Amino acid sequence: MIPQPKVGLFDYPKYWAECYGTAPFLPMSRQEMDELGWDSCDIILVTGDAYVDHPSFGMAVIGRMLESQGFRVGIIAQPDWHSKDPFMALGKPNLFFGITAGNMDSMINRYTAERRLRHDDAYSPNNEGGKRPDRAVLVYSQRCKEAYKDVPVILGGIEASLRRIAHYDYWSDKVRRSVIFDAKADLLIYGNAERPLVEVAHRIARGETADTLTDVRGTAFITKQALTGWRGVDSRSIDRPGKIDPIPSPYQEMTAQTCASEDKPEQESADVQIVDVSKEAVPIQISDYQNKSWDKRHKPWEKTYVKLPSFEQVSNNKTLYAHASRIFHQEVNPGSARALLQTHGDRSVWLNPPAYPLDESEMDGVFGLPYARVPHPVYGDAKIPAYDMIKTSINIMRGCFGGCSFCSITEHEGRIIQSRSEQSILDEIEDIKEKVPGFTGVISDLGGPTANMYKLRCKSPKAEATCRRPSCVWPDICGHMDTDHTPTINLYRKARKVRGIKKVLIASGVRYDLAIQDPEYVKELATHHVGGYLKIAPEHTEEGPLSKMMKPGMGTYDKFKEMFDHYSKVAGKKQFLIPYFISAHPGTTDEDMINLALWLKKHDFKLDQVQNFYPSPLANATTLYHTEIDSLSKIRKTSASVPVAKGGRQRRLHKAILRYHDPANWPIIREALTKKGLARKLIGSGPQFLVPAETRQEKSMQYRKGKNNSSGHKTSPGQKNNRRSKPGQQGLTRFSKDQFK
């Protein structure tokens, strides 16, 4: 079982400033501080988002959480970063500055997947872009240091969390140092920060200095050497290419279909035992401890740190980068994770194990804080799109055990699902009815990172505490995973019975491989909680990219669609699934994209919005993109490289193929099909063709531009005979890889 902390989230003695009570909004100006009777702030939070006092905005959650502990908390939202003056607007904080880029990494917020500058920002008033700097955490931290050099600076939020060790940075196309070095910060808190931040705040308030806070879980800091009392292990001794050293386990009755592999360990050397974990998690054996209680069992991960390859090594050696990524993703379970140490020059970054998850009562406490649920009055009538989108939605849980390689939820929130009680969620519905202006009776979403993981957890507490599988549902659903959706179904039914509620929609992504395990859930969803369209994310149709995404095959999608269509029909409703797909994901070839486009055309899908793969920091897929090495399985010198769409032209091609119906994309698609010898089969007029042949008007335009078609030829090879459909060619054909040769 996951151990519990010694002090609960709301069990600390309140700070003396509790006497000031609760602020209607956390102050953003000296005038507001004066109205509250404050002479100073104990903690000042600096954020790249507009301040919206709503539990979907990280700064509001953290600010209200600290306020509940008795601290006076001020907010500096979207300051002008060109000087230190805006960072001095609330005066000098008594304890520390808390810095975050906001709800998104600032680089993802500012740039598209093609590295083009965005001119909008959903987290800013009136959707105005340019209200935050690039790499906002670095800039804000440096300005706070300039303003008050003796005040500790603590980093948090998703940008800091996903850059806590050396990481590949897509925008500069290089490996960057841990963000704590460039920010010159005193401490970094990763993941959902409530538990470690509350501990840090109380300890600093008691007189401890930031440099002495080396034992707080969920934190990272700079050190010159490993902490005393800890035993170090070199990462290459426990995870040689493709293999990992077993650790003691409290359960050994596992089967290959559950959380552990039964592969026999190989002996690579006399003193190192290694086990093949290319498919599943680490097999762990401890027969010596079968009769001991969990508390008394030996836990070899305690007081043990893993030394990762240094920043200099992972910067210059892609194999070591892939190796470091494998180790990092194996050390995320708060029940058994070891500390990590990575050297940067003559100093190192030390990562303590992740913070323990919040229990149900703590989750209820966090979401039950006195949020105003609207933007701060300073914004007047300005619209903040991110708020408008979520103002009537409710987070019912945190975390995700899906482990999709392109997603950073696991690296930030963890695999353990942290759920709220039914009553807490129903109380929030009442809060929305009372506080949200113009509420129409429609709850736009009851969800979270995934709609249908509410109260789903590992059925074996001992397995949950030690499992190192990156996903509980891939390649198959773990035998220990609870798939009973009854708590979710009951919640939906109670929510829609609340007086004044007309409709409760589910807008979060549905994990359909879990949903089909419980047909009653699909029935409930289709009958009552879909507004005509349900968005789901198969992401691709081909096995190559799906295996690198760690997503289920299309057979699972087909089964869910069959169930969804059936229950929609029974309910007398005409409803549709809207699938999401990713182009240019690592592991995807041009042939994979063509087959996906053929599937889309066969099912008459014309996608308007297409997401090109975005290499976000620390994600497994980003490691695949950068190294072209399959870090999801064994890493060997002889390992085949992962196909990766790099360079603007190939990435544009993959995106264009997904939007095969757009005439603007036809020239680049025709050129690609011609080069692959598929012009006769896929270019022409008729339902069996992917794109039409070039028209005289297009040829004329190309001629005036200096060439006759996208390939520079007067006609594409074999193109003349494709103007008419041949008998028997009325259906689209899926091509095998051999046919592309």
Automatic annotation (TrEMBL):
Record domain Radical SAM core: where: 386-651
Feature: compositional bias, Polar residues: 708-720
Cofactor binding remark: Binds 1 [4Fe-4S] cluster. The cluster is coordinated with 3 cysteines and an exchangeable S-adenosyl-L-methionine.
Pfam families cross-referenced by the UniProt entry: DUF3362, Radical_SAM, Radical_SAM_N
Family matches, as SUPFAM superfamilies: Radical SAM enzymes
Assigned keywords, A-Z: 4Fe-4S, Iron, Iron-sulfur, Metal-binding, S-adenosyl-L-methionine
Record-linked Gene3D superfamilies: tm_1862 like domain
Keyword Transmembrane: no
Cofactor dependency: [4Fe-4S] cluster
UniProt region (Disordered), positions on chain: 690-741
Residues reported in the UniProt entry to bind [4Fe-4S] cluster: C400, C404, C407
Domain of life: Bacteria
GO MF annotation, one: catalytic activity
UniProt key word S-adenosyl-L-methionine: yes
Family affiliation: Belongs to the UPF0313 family.
NCBIfam families from the UniProt entry: SAM_YgiQ
Protein name: YgiQ family radical SAM protein
